[in-house]
Inverse folding.
């Protein structure tokens, strides 16, 4: 195969695939951690599996993945149990309990690493933080066809194999137990009564998180694991309400973070004139953060931009409704011209000059208002009637059912009239004794 | 390959232990031990307020976010040549990004539907990731100084210079004095900020002052305990102290004592066995105090509670059957 492909497959592809598999398993499980507000358990587990890993090293004197996984799983389960015990018997609050357990276990792990280093066991404290993606490589065979043979595949780097298997395991866990995980995340009590033991599922989730942490540790280090457990799921959460969509999006963002981070780590320094790369795992964590920041700003549903646009839209529609209602009242109660002018002035003061002009123009354009004469058209009158109806229904309800005095209800009804739905309106009408004919001030309800 | 049972340590002799423990190990060692003990005291008392305000893990975000600041300050120093590895600029850099991290947590929590635990985790790992990237840049800069920054991650009391220790001493004393001066006001703001405001106390300013002492203690503790474990020095003594008393003043004091003792013992052991990471040692000392408190504290410890419950059940049984 060509030079380019050879370099790519030997140097770039293994770390990329390892990172993608690691972040996929973390992103997948992270969705459920996010829903249970247990994101920091992921942080805690990543710190506290350290002594488990080191002890496994020391006992087996090898870097066998199975030993490490067992050691880490034990540490992971131990963490969850210890945290619960301290919370229950020590009556310590949740954040403090987590902090105590994970930092003590991490300190133990750090101490054990020094012991291990003294015995020439190959374990490096730095690597645990940021992994060693750059050192994962593979010597591919000469042609593409040979890629499919078993002897070649068995030469794959161990990190790639272990992250692949854990990704597969996580996928199976989530897809097979999707309904159970969903129910127990949203409503643990309900799920237990339905026969799906919420506690067992919680522990199972923590065990799988431990697996994902451990498998990814060696390759990408503990920081990236924490970032990948939370950030892609959080980013997806800001874009959608549906769980399946959220899971899919989180996988997408995980891949974006891995691939994007890798590209930035290798290419960006080149662009800036360096001839070496920066730490890939760190860059991937940063990329996931950037993706989150972008989505938090621009998401149309839950981002800053979307929410500010929506609130502005609400403000405009409220201004328009207020203007229409004012003109309706001026007509119905037969105000003198000076009074109408005064009320319009008050409205202009409250909503601001710009909103006022916008409202007038919008209403004129929709033919609800005759601009120069301040009169309502037929259509405008109907809409104003609707708003006034909601206002007076609320006034009646507040006086009749909630016992407020009738000179106190105007402001409240004024605020509520803009956000009352059709359904709410008919409920209000049904609840009133007078069945919505006269408001507390004696005026007719249209 | 050596086996697990082959513990060839270079244990210091008993006389050496006594010498260092009772502050006769040399001026530098003494200073480090005393400085670390004072830092432990400061961390213990500020940690109490952090826990009461349920801000324990915010300190974790702060510590992890400090890493890029350290690296940037270092790079800046190298590039401009103003300072080489002086501590103060590094700590200033650490404080700046640490505070940025906290702001990011607040912004994400209040500006989006994410809950605080998720935002703390995100900020913590993303900022730390940025720090790790910058550290790799420093390694490429080939000035051999990245090792020094490594000490900020895991802590290393034995390698502290005189000036470093004096700085941390000064900050620790400053924090302790501030807390003692404001202890009544801090207590009030912790338990009833509304009342405090109504009585005319600037509750917001006091809150900021509390947060500021956490920031100061965290940033100062970076060099002794390292940024991953400084959170332990803030949380564990305070949590341990809770088991001994219901009174807040006593809790603050006991927490400080636990922190100070852990710092003292941890730094002593680190002086005797310099290859062991100091941060881990200090934190393990806090852990020992925690376990002792959890089980044996007479006020709220598990043993005391069990005995009290047993005595109560006996009393009830006796009353019922008489």
């Amino acid at each position: 195969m060509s030079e380019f492909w050879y370099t790519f497959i030997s140097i770039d592809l293994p770390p990329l695939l390892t990172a993608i598999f690691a972040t996929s398993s973390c992103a997948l499980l992270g969705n459920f951690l996010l829903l249970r507000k247990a994101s920091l358990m992921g942080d805690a587990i990543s710190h506290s599996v350290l002594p488990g890993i080191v002890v496994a090293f020391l006992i087996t004197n090898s870097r066998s993945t199975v030993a490490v996984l067992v050691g880490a799983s034990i540490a992971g389960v131990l963490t969850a149990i210890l945290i619960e015990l301290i919370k229950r018997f020590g009556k310590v609050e949740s954040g403090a309990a987590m902090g105590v357990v994970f930092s003590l276990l991490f300190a133990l792990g750090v101490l054990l690493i020094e012991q291990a280093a003294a015995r020439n066991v190959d374990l490096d404290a730095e690597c645990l933080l940021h992994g060693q993606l750059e050192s994962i490589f593979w010597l591919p065979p000469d042609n593409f066809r040979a890629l499919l043979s078993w002897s070649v595949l068995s030469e794959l780097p161990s990190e790639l194999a272990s992250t692949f298997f854990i990704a597969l395991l996580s996928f199976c866990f989530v897809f097979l137990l999707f309904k159970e995980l969903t129910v127990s995340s949203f409503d643990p009590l309900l799920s237990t009564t339905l026969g799906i033991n919420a506690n067992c599922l919680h522990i199972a989730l923590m065990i799988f998180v431990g697996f994902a942490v451990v498998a990814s540790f060696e390759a990408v280090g503990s920081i990236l694991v924490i970032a990948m457990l939370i950030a892609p799921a959080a980013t997806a959460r800001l874009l959608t309400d549906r769980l399946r969509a959220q899971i899919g999006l989180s996988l997408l963002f995980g891949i974006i973070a891995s691939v994007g981070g890798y590209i930035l780590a290798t290419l960006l320094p080149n662009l800036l004139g360096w001839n070496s790369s920066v730490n890939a795992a760190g860059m991937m964590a940063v990329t996931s953060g950037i993706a989150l920041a972008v989505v938090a700003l621009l998401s149309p549903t839950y981002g800053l931009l979307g929410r500010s646009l929506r609130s502005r839209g609400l403000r405009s529609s409220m201004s328009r409704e207020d203007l229409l209602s004012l003109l309706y009242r001026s007509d119905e109660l037969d105000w003198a011209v000076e009074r109408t002018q005064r009320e319009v002035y008050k409205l202009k003061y409250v909503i601001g000059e710009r909103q006022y002009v916008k409202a007038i123009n919008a209403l004129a354009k929709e033919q609800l208002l005759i601009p120069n004469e301040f009169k309502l058209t037929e259509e405008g009158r109907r809409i104003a009637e609707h708003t006034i109806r909601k206002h007076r229904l609320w006034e009646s309800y507040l006086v009749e059912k909630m016992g407020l005095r009738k000179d106190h209800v105007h402001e409240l009804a004024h605020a509520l009239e803009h956000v009352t739905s059709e359904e709410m309106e008919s409920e209000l009408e049904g609840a009133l004794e007078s069945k919505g004919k006269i408001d507390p001030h004696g005026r007719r309800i249209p | 390959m050596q086996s697990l049972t082959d513990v060839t340590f270079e244990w210091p002799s008993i006389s050496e232990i006594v010498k260092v423990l009772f502050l006769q190990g040399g001026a530098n060692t003494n200073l480090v031990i005393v400085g670390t003990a004072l830092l432990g005291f400061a961390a213990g008392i500020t940690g109490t307020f952090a826990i009461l305000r349920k801000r324990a893990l915010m300190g974790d975000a702060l510590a992890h976010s400090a890493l890029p600041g350290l690296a940037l300050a270092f790079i800046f120093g190298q590039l401009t040549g103003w300072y080489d590895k002086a501590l103060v600029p590094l700590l200033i850099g650490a404080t700046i990004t640490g505070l940025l991290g906290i702001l990011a947590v607040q912004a994400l929590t209040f500006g989006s539907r994410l809950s605080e635990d998720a935002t703390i985790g995100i900020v913590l790992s993303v900022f730390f990731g940025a720090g790790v990237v910058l550290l790799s840049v420093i390694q490429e800069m080939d000035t051999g100084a990245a090792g020094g920054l490594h000490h900020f991650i895991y802590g290393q009391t034995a390698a502290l210079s005189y000036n470093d220790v004096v700085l941390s001493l000064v900050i620790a004393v400053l924090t302790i004095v501030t807390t003692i001066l404001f202890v009544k006001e801090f207590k009030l703001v912790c338990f009833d900020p509304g009342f405090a405001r109504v009585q005319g106390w600037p509750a917001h300013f006091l809150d900021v002052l509390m947060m500021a002492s956490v920031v100061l203690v965290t940033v100062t503790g970076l060099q002794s305990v390292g940024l991953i474990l400084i959170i332990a020095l803030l949380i564990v003594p305070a949590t341990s102290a809770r088991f001994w008393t219901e009174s807040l003043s006593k809790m603050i004091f006991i927490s400080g004592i636990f922190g100070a003792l852990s710092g003292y013992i941890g730094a002593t052991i680190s002086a005797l066995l310099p290859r062991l990471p100091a941060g881990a040692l200090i934190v393990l000392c806090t852990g020992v105090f925690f376990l002792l408190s959890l089980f044996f504290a007479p006020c709220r410890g598990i043993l005391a509670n069990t005995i009290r419950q047993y005595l109560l059940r006996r009393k009830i049984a006796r009353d019922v059957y008489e």
Notes: Strands of chain A lie at 369-370, 375-376. The longest helix of chain A spans residues 198-237. Chain A touches chain B through 68 residues (CB under 8 Å). Chain A is about 75% helix and 0% strand.
